[in-house]
Design a protein that fits this description.
The complex is a heterodimer of chains A (371) and B (386). Chain A contains eleven helices and ten strands. Chain A has 371 residues and is of the alpha+beta class. Chain A is globular and about 75 Å long. With 386 residues, chain B is an alpha+beta fold. Chain B folds into three domains: 83 residues, no CATH class; 110 residues, Butyryl-CoA Dehydrogenase, subunit A, domain 2; 138 residues, Up-down Bundle (Butyryl-CoA Dehydrogenase, subunit A, domain 3). In chain B, α9 packs antiparallel against α10 and α10 packs antiparallel against α11. The longest helix of chain B has 33 residues. Classes of the chains: A alpha+beta (371), B alpha+beta (386). Chains A and B meet through α7, α8, α9 and α11 of A and α9, α10 and α12 of B.
Chain lengths: 371, 386
């Protein structure tokens, strides 16, 4: 086995870290938090210039052939910087769904996303289906699409959306303009922008249906696993920052005439966080490789395990980070509470702990059948 | 990045699996499958069998008779050993005093003691803890006084695992009281048959005899039995803390216990019971995966010549916690079937009959080898700089 990152991945990570250090401070984040439009033209162009728009996609579909490991390296740094630029929401998420759908229409749209010409979001969740993305409540009856989607993450600016719908007992992926829907926009727990869409007999033409049946199911399932891995990367980046900041705080904050880091209880909290972070890193390396495995069962088991583990331990690190910071930890002024929100958010998006425990059990049973 | 074993390693794994299948004695296999612990004769029979293959001392350098395996191969061997239902080898000779001897011992000491460890003939025990020196080991009081060609040892050790089985003890003794506590400690090898040694049993909460008190009254130990110089005991003890930690997490044996838990789960009477047990099991398997991949990282790093240092203490902490949780899950899965203590015939499935004993036994694993709290103190100081 070999756990060394490929040289190219290390370079991507270093570039991302440097770029964000130079261009995205905590103040930048706070300012963006108060905006409803999260697409900042200069930084968006910079990300394009860095090659990030094409990186996640295979060369055969016009991308630069980066691996999930590469994309995780970027998303980890975005998490560490609390960056709200909608790179995942408007590039990776819709792009991977279109790539996995792999139809002429989906790949044509992917081309335009890579070129930075389209702002497309993914709408795969709804109130009734919860996390069960293969069984949405949106209905495509002939040419008419009706129902509801929520938590459509779009940076507040998407013009179009990819929605999943049941057409009879078949899953379909449909692309449609935002303005065909009744749109309600809001901010999410991590500060990002999203929308709820209500569709009332929206007229759907054949060319708007990108993919159907098993192909659609496979695409959505692969998309879900990919996004789960990115959630873990984002949480890892945030947890690493919280751990380092908390350790630094314990070394310098004085009470009772000495640093609080000299107290055994604080030392043990921090050692627990250190060990958890070490294991979170192991799980991230594991899921960054297996999260796009061709073996669907292995892929599902890996992402389910990683997300379930993160929902437990990554959230724990940020909660403990607040606790050790004391009063200042619960203020909007300090970044710790913002990391806590980001990590909690990511632990709930694309499946919470219980959902992934169930998936993990199912994947294990399927694996036993195969063996 | 590559998360798979190489083809050679896969072949190695197959051959070890086959050997285990053919060679783990049935009585030992069924003892382990019940969740019981092998007695002295089983343990020694197994270790001698490994010794005859040259597989008892897998971590030793080739020049001292190790098989020359990579850390990955050692990991695979340990995994297949556990999955075949064979017990872990007793650590005192193979993993502790052996490496001390080939690192700090004289040529005469190596020639005299290493062969017996390698073959599984000599059983060792560890004389560290004392009634008033547990976690605070440096305050130990057992005294060794130089008296011509031998030391006279007086004092008491406690929590001495397998002292009642052992031929030899490696012992930390105080040879100088006038210096800092750590500097006055020496490392002495004591023949357990020497007059003046009394071993008294301590029964553990699993109802079995693993631990002992050992009393020393004017015990004569030849000067040639001191490893290194007087005052080097603390250095040697610290060396052992960071020596070969690729199996410290107990991942292999946890895998085996999880497989027993799966067997147990299948035997549950109702679907509802099974459903609950599945979720309990899944939570443990997820945590095992995190531990296992961290362990893989230490194994891979060791093979690159960059072994983990103190950060491997995290593996000990997480590994022992998980061992306890798995044993608890077994008891919980059995429910009422886990309650009988001394019955020959199980009231339900055989697998639950020893579950509560094992659960009791494993309370010790977060205490021995430096309690988890002490491990955290060490990590805070050495890694976190607190």
């Amino acid at each position: 086995m070999d756990f060394k990152l490929p040289e190219n991945t290390t370079m991507i990570a270093d570039t991302a870290r440097r770029y964000l250090k130079d261009n995205y401070s905590f103040d930048t984040y706070i300012a963006q938090l108060n905006e409803s439009n999260h697409l900042e033209a200069n930084r968006w162009q910079s990300m394009n210039d860095l090659g990030w728009f094409g990186l996640p996609f295979a060369e055969s579909v016009g991308g630069y052939g980066g691996s999930l490991l590469d994309v995780c390296a970027i998303v980890k740094e975005l998490g560490a910087a609390l960056c709200l630029d909608p790179f995942v929401d408007l590039i990776v998420s819709p792009g991977k769904l279109l790539e996995y759908a792999n139809t002429p229409a989906s790949l044509a749209l992917l081309d335009r996303i890579i070129a930075g010409e389209e702002r497309v979001a993914c709408g795969l969740y709804d109130r009734h289906a919860g996390y069960h993305v293969l069984n949405p409540s949106l209905r495509l009856n002939g040419e008419r699409l009706s129902g509801q989607k929520h938590v459509v993450s779009d940076g507040g600016v998407a013009d179009a959306v990819l929605v999943s719908a049941m057409s009879g007992d078949e899953l379909a992926i449909v692309a449609l303009p935002f303005d065909a829907c009744d749109v309600e926009r809001y901010r999410l727990l991590d500060g990002s922008r999203a929308a709820s869409l209500t569709l009332d007999d929206v007229l759907i033409t054949d060319e708007m249906v990108l993919c159907r049946g098993d192909a659609a199911k496979q695409a959505v399932s692969a998309w879900f696993d990919y996004l789960c891995a990115l959630d873990c990367a984002r949480m890892y980046g945030a947890c690493r920052e919280v751990y380092q900041a908390t350790l630094e705080y314990a070394r310098t904050r004085k009470q009772f005439g000495t640093t609080i880091g000299s107290f055994q209880v604080i030392q043990h909290y921090l050692v627990d966080a250190f060990i958890d972070l070490q294991q979170l890193e192991s799980m991230l390396l594991m899921v960054s490789v297996k999260g796009e495995s061709a073996n669907v069962c292995e892929r599902g088991r890996a992402t389910a395990a990683a997300k379930a583990y993160y929902a437990n331990r990554a959230v724990g690190i940020t909660q403990q980070g607040i606790q050790i910071h004391g009063g200042v930890g619960v203020t909007e002024e300090l970044n710790i509470g913002h990391y806590f929100r980001l990590v909690t958010h990511a632990s709930l998006s694309h499946g919470d702990r219980e959902h992934h425990m169930s998936r993990f059990i199912q994947a294990g049973e399927k694996q036993n059948e195969v063996v | 990045m590559n998360l798979d074993f190489s083809n050679d390693e896969k072949e190695f794994r197959k051959s070890i699996r086959q050997w285990m299948k053919e060679n783990v004695p049935d009585d030992i296999r069924s003892c382990t499958a019940r969740g019981a612990m092998p007695d002295k004769s089983m343990q020694q029979r197994w270790e001698r069998l490994l010794g005859s293959q040259g597989w008892l001392t897998t971590t030793w350098p080739e020049q001292y008779g190790g098989p020359g395996w990579s850390a990955t191969q050692r990991y695979i061997f340990d995994l297949e050993r556990a999955l075949a239902g064979a017990p872990p080898t007793s650590p005192f000779g193979v993993a502790m005093v052996g490496p001390v001897l080939y690192t700090f011992g004289s040529e005469a000491q190596k020639a005299h003691w290493l062969p017996g460890i390698q073959s599984g003939e000599t059983l060792w025990c560890q004389g560290y803890s004392e009634p008033n020196a547990g976690s605070d080991l440096a305050s130990l009081k057992t005294r060794a006084t130089l008296n011509g060609d031998h030391y006279l040892v007086n004092g008491q050790k406690i929590w001495t695992t397998q002292a009642h089985w052992a031929d030899m003890m490696f012992c930390l003794v105080r040879t100088d009281s006038s210096v800092k506590p750590q500097q006055g400690i020496s490392f002495l090898l004591i023949d357990m048959k020497t007059p003046g040694i009394e071993v008294r049993p301590i029964y553990s909460i699993d109802g079995h005899h693993h631990l002992n008190e050992v009393y020393f009254t004017d015990v004569k130990v030849p000067v040639g039995n001191m490893v290194g110089k007087e005052g080097m005991g603390w250095t040697i003890a610290k060396f052992l803390l960071t020596h070969e930690r690729t199996t410290i997490a107990g991942v292999a044996d946890i895998h085996y216990e999880i497989s027993r838990l799966k067997t147990a789960m299948a035997a549950l009477p109702t679907e509802n019971d099974k459903e609950q047990a599945k979720r309990r099991l899944a939570a443990l398997e997820v945590d095992l995966m995190a531990l296992e991949y961290t362990n893989f990282r230490t194994v891979a790093a060791t093979d690159e010549g960059k072994p983990f240092g103190p950060e491997s203490s995290g593996l000990k902490i997480k590994g022992t916690e998980l061992q306890q949780r798995v044993s608890q899950a077994m008891v919980e899965t059995g429910g009422l079937m886990s309650l009988p203590w001394d019955n020959e015939e199980p009231i339900g499935e055989q697998i639950f009959n020893q579950a509560s004993r094992r659960y009791n036994f494993l309370r010790a694993c977060t205490i021995y080898g430096g309690s988890n709290e002490i491990q955290k103190n060490v990590l805070a100081k050495m890694l976190l700089g607190l």
